[in-house]
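Hi there,

I know you've been waiting on this one. I reran it after we fixed the sequence typo, so this is the corrected version. Both the input and the resulting structure follow.
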Amino acid sequence: MLPALVLLVGCESIRASLVETHDAEYAAPALGTAAAGTGPVAVFDGPDAGRQKINVRLRRVADGFSQPTDIQFPPGDSSRMLVLEKGGDAWLLSQDDSGPFGQRQKVIDLDVLTASEEGLLGAAFHPKFADNGKLYLNYVLDKPTGDTTRIAEWTVTDPAAAVWSASETQVILEAWQPYANHNAGQVRFGPDGMLYVGFGDGGWRNDPEGHGQDGTTWLGAMLRIDVDRKDPRKHYAVPPDNPFVGNSAYQPEVWATGLRNPWRYAFDPLGRLVVADVGQNAYEEVSIVSAGDNMGWNSREGRHCFTGTCLQPGEGQVVDPIYEYDHEEGQSITGGVVATSSEDTAIRGKYLFGDFVSGRLWAIDLPAEATARPRQAPVYTLGRWGMLFSTFGQDADGRVFVADYQKGRVYRIEG
C-alpha cells in the first residue's frame, strides 16, 4: 500500500517501487464506486476539490495486459492499436464485429531487462508506415557492457494485412544506462519528420553522474535524429539545423538538455514539443521544449533551486516549466496529449496528463501564442481514479486513450 511505500523508500522511489511491484491491491483510498458496466468513477478531493472540474468518462476498450507501457496507433488509422508491455511483448489490437479492439495478436516478443523502470518502453510508427512498414522501439537490454537502451527499427512486412509479421531490421543507436531507473522511454516523430528520443539522466537520485547539465552525453537530453538518411558510421543522420551542431561541448544529436526523466512527451497541434518530466522529491512539471533549451535539472527541480549553485531562467538557455505541481497532489507525472477529437467538446484543445502514483487526471490550456510560456497554465481537474496511469495514446481522429498499469486495462477518455 502507498503509506508503507512512502515510509520505506520516500517520494523519489515510489514510482520505481510501484513500477517493479505493481501491487494488485494498491488503490488510492476513498474512491467512488460504479454500477456494473458503467466504468470507474472519479473523486474530486484534496487540492482538486476547489478547482474547475471537467467531468469525463473512462470507457474500457481493452484489457488483459501485463504492465502496459505505451499505446500507439498507425498514422491515419483509428482501427488498430499497438499496446506495449514492460516485459517485452507488443500486441496489435484491431476492431471487429465483436466490438472495439476485439481482435488481438502478439507481433513482437523481446527479451528485455525489467528491473525497476527498465523494459519495453516506447514505440513510434514512421510517418510513412503505410508505405514502408517501419516501426521504432525503445527497450533496455542486458549487454556485456551493462544495461543498455536500444532504439531499433523494426519492419512490418505488410502493414495493410490483417496479421502482421515484424522483425528487427536495424539498430539505430544504443546508450549505456548506469542505473535501472530514469530510463525515460518515449520515441516520437515530430511534424518535421525527425525522430525525437528522450533520455533520462540515467538515475539514481540527485543525478549523481551530473548528466543533466552535461551536453557531452545523451543522458538527461532530448535527441533529434533523421532516420531516413545516414551519416558516415551512423545508422541515422544528424539534422544540420540541430542547435549544437559544431559545438564540442555537446553531442550533435542533442536538441535540449537538463531533463531528469521525460517519461512521456508529445507534439501539440502547433508543432510544439510538450514534455512531462518526472521530478524527485518535490515537484512534477510540464514544459514546452524548444531547440537549445536547458530545462534546468539538476540545478533546478521545476521552478525551484535544487542545488546550491542554481541556474536562473534565461541563464544558459534555462527555461522554466509552464505548469508544475507538488507532491501533495502526486509523485510521478505521466505526460499525455492534446485532445483534438470533435466528439469530446469538454476536453478538446486541452493537454491531458496524469499522475502515476495518485491516480489523478488533469487538463491544462497551452498558450495560444506559439512562443509564449506562461508562469502557470490554467488547470482543470478530471478527478482521481485510483489507477496507475502509465501512458496515454491518441488515434487518428484525436480521441485520447490511457492505460492502467496496475490492472492492465486501456480506457478511452470521453468528455
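Quick highlight: The two ends are 31 Å apart (CA to CA).

Best,
R. S.
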